Amino acid sequence: MDEPVSPFDVALSRRGLIALAAGAPLLVVGLAAVAHAEEAPAICVDLDTLPASQKGMRRSIGFRLHSPDPKKHCSLCTFFTGAAAGCGKCQLLSGGSVAATSLCDSFAARA
Ligand code: SF4
Fold first, then answer.
1. What pLDDT score was predicted for residue 50?
2. What is the C-alpha separation between 21 and 18, in angstroms, rounded?
3. pLDDT for 24-63, tens place per residue?
4. How far apart are CA 101 and CA 98, in angstroms?
5. Which residues, 6 or more positions from 33, have their beta carbon under 8 angstroms from its beta carbon?
6. Do residues 99 and 65 touch, judged by C-beta distance below 8 A?
7. Residues with CB under 6 A from ligand 1
8. pLDDT, mean of residues 62-84
9. Contact 44, 68 (CB under 8 A)
10. For residues 11 and 39, what is the distance between their CA atoms, to the nearest angstrom?
11. Buried b (16+ CB within 10 A) or exposed e, 13-27
12. What's residue 85's pLDDT?
């Protein structure tokens, strides 16, 4: 036979369900934010505010903020020097900032 359930147990159980129901969406949003943060490339440079010389150099080498090829991006390039997390400097851009995930037509794989 089942044991009798006290009103306290029922209230606790309801509270637990309500708390779980209220917390579940927050957990999902939190996990999605963490996943998105891992995928989002670092923002190392604001292309709109660069000096004209940097804009011209970037245009001439076909600079793209985000590489479409996971095997070719700045952090794998011989001209890249790492700096802050996800960011670095490019020798071809006179030390201009690039994201590790950026790419240009002058990419040269590190030996
Ligand atoms: S040469 Fe191009 S791919 Fe290499 S670090 Fe500079 S911008 Fe990135």
1. 95
2. 5
3. 554 444 444 444 444 566 789 899 999 999 999 999 999 9
4. 8
5. none
6. yes
7. 61, 63, 74, 77, 79-80, 90, 92-93, 98, 102-104, 106-107
8. 95
9. no
10. 42
11. eeeeeeeeeeeeeee
12. 84
